Amino acid sequence: MRDAYHEELDSIGDSLVEMARLVGSAIGRATTAILDSDLKLAESVIEGDQKVDDLQHDLEGRAIALLARQQPVATDLRIVVTSLRMSADLERSGDLAQHVAKLTRLRYPERAIPQDLHATILEMGQLAQRLMAKAAEVIVTKDVDLALQLEQDDDAMDLLHRTLFQHLMDERWKHGIETAVDVTLLGRYYERYADHAVAVAKRVVYLVTGEHADELQQDIKPDIQPVSGVDGA
Amino acid sequence: MRDAYHEELDSIGDSLVEMARLVGSAIGRATTAILDSDLKLAESVIEGDQKVDDLQHDLEGRAIALLARQQPVATDLRIVVTSLRMSADLERSGDLAQHVAKLTRLRYPERAIPQDLHATILEMGQLAQRLMAKAAEVIVTKDVDLALQLEQDDDAMDLLHRTLFQHLMDERWKHGIETAVDVTLLGRYYERYADHAVAVAKRVVYLVTGEHADELQQDIKPDIQPVSGVDGA
Question: Among the residues of chain B, which ranges form H helices?
């Protein structure tokens, strides 16, 4: 039987998984909303983010109370501190899903995304959702191999992001500046979302293995920037 | 005379101020670099970010050691936990300054920013640097009034960001898609940089007043999005 202390630690883990589930669903729904120009679905994502914020807020309160009351040391202390960081990553992921939904609302009833970019955006949205589902699984299973898979998935996201930039930079681009701005921001939202999912997984790896102290840091990977022939970013 | 414990707490505060100083200088230099297309200056910002990362890493280690050894409660515990969050904000601000510098390098020897946007970008860069200088001052002085000033400064940043979007959306825009993409990303870098500076100040307010629990959260303010006639974002 577990004591109250470990039950509380477990419940923090449960909240993280619930947050990951919510923001995973949010990016999936936001992607559908922007591709279909579905205002109602977009609104549900925008409103739903409050629940993620509330969960984070609640988790923070419990984590700090746990530190104060139980004064954990060593591994347990690291779990609590790392959970605070993971909750920040997940909260930010929720914001980014919300941004995708807000762009849908801003352009409604127009479609923000031209047809020839639908496939790429759909892939980015699906990949983002899969990354978050894997991050949630890593939180539950502490599976280091799965966590390392996320980095490969993230490489695929970078590739999609580059594809998006190539479309933008193509001389045959005919969708004008407003759409170029929207697509630029959208690409960044997905890329950052993926970064946070990877960060969550890496934090678990660090907890399990104690290795890669650098990965404790807020940002793991440099953001990619637009290309122009060479990738100098 | 202060005991070792409070000396350690103070030294964490000193590290935060040093980080703020470094990332404040970085955004100023990155702005000059992108406006002048000064590759050497850009490289110095890119390389200099390692020092910020190292400081954060070191600060985290000391904060966690302090939690483990001293097991602070109440206010002291909140100071340590909040310091961890502030260090994450500052580290991310450094990344954003580095992004500005990388965009300079990517476009070199071309200038990334057309002449008619120089004034706006310069203002954004200067405002970002002032915001960070004030954030550092707030860390030192715990001056709540000054912290609240940062929110007004941030409104000015939003206004500049909107100005930038208006330039982009103007039918007379003649700088092409690549520059539109660069300017879109650049605007976002400055805006997010400012958000993190404001977040740092708000976290201090929370420590001092114990109010505004919401402001403990990672993100305080919704990001602005491109406008198109009306601001629906």
Answer: 4-36, 39-70, 74-107, 118-141, 144-169, 176-209
Contact residues for B14 (Cβ-Cβ < 8 A; gap 6+): none
Residues of B in contact with A92 (CB under 8 A): 218-219
List C-alpha distances in Å: B182 to B42, B93, B225: 16, 18, 15
Tens of pLDDT along chain A (233 residues) come to 568 888 999 999 999 999 999 999 999 999 999 999 999 999 999 999 999 999 999 999 999 999 999 888 888 999 999 999 999 999 999 999 999 999 999 999 999 999 999 999 999 999 999 999 999 999 999 999 999 999 999 999 999 999 999 999 998 999 999 999 999 999 999 999 999 999 999 999 988 887 753 443 344 455 667 765 333 33
Give me the amino acid identity at B174: K
Which of B74, B88, B181 is the closest to A68 by Cβ?
A: B74
SS3 B189: helix
In a domain, A84, yes or no: yes
* CATH number, domain containing residue A123: 1.20.58.220
Q: How far apart are CA B159 and CA B180, in angstroms?
A: 18
- Residue A13 domain-assigned? yes
Task: Tell me which amino acid residue B182 is.
Answer: D
Residue A149 resides in a domain: yes
- Residue A172 lies inside a defined structural domain of this protein: yes
**How many separate domains does chain B show?**
1
CB contact (8 A) between residue A225 and residue B103: yes
> For residue B85, what are the domain limits?
4-216
Q: How many other CB atoms are found less than 10 A from the CB of residue A166? A: 12
CA of A212 vs chain B CAs: smallest distance (Å): 12
